[in-house]
Amino acid sequence: MRRLIVSGAIALAALVTGAGAVAIAAGTTPEAPARQWKFEGPFGTYDRAAAQRGYQVYQEVCSACHSLSLLAYRNLTELGLTDNQVKGLIKDITVTDLGDDGQPADRPARLSDRFKKPFPNELAAAAANNGKAPPDLSVIVKARANGPNYIYALLTGYVPFDKLTPDQVKAYSVTKDDNYNTYFPGHRIAMAPPLADDKVTYADGTKATLGQEASDVTEFLAWASEPHMEDRKRTGVRVILFLLAMAGLMYAVKRQVWSDKH
Description:
Blueprint: H1 2-27, H2 48-60, H3 83-89, E1 94-98, E2 104-108, H4 122-127, H5 140-143, H6 147-156, E3 158-159, H7 166-171, E4 179-181, E5 188-189, H8 210-225, H9 229-257
Antiparallel strand pairs: 1-2, 3-4, 4-5
């Protein structure tokens, strides 16, 4: 019994200490600023023009390291693109498939193909990125608390080493080889700043500032995380309207049935 009590006390102390450490770490990381996103709220919808630009940012910048394994290229038609437009976007992408002889061979990507992965497997991804495989982005917006705001803040929250204060450098042991990000827990992040002004040249002529690129790719990743959100919201509205109509009908029937009792 005594051994059990001692073990419980040790476990409780470890839990309290760990929670305290987490609280201290969390307290040094500011919360991502809230932004207005068109897709939020019960009647929110995706900004398809922004999401199309966001796909361009993903394909030209993010896809070198991050996969989108839950999406197929044909899903891009849900962003308002035609089959021919999507085929034009993926015409330079090749995927590995089995040839007629049963051996691996490269071929042009088809609409039915899943998004091409940047690495053949997780071990290869980790080996190419200092031992840590970059996360898949298919549901990254839904997986993170305050997802859209966090992704946008992370992409725009890098601070160059020469802009850091001596206190920041000392507190987080930052060196010139590290990447400091205001909104990343612990502030030192392995990923170098992926975006910058004019990192891409938008097909629709939109000025490609850092903020615009971050906003567009966040919109695209929000859609990728929940591509059927708009259908779900429309269904919810129809159900509510049906229930209201049914409630009114039931009330009218009740009044009719009990009218002779009043």
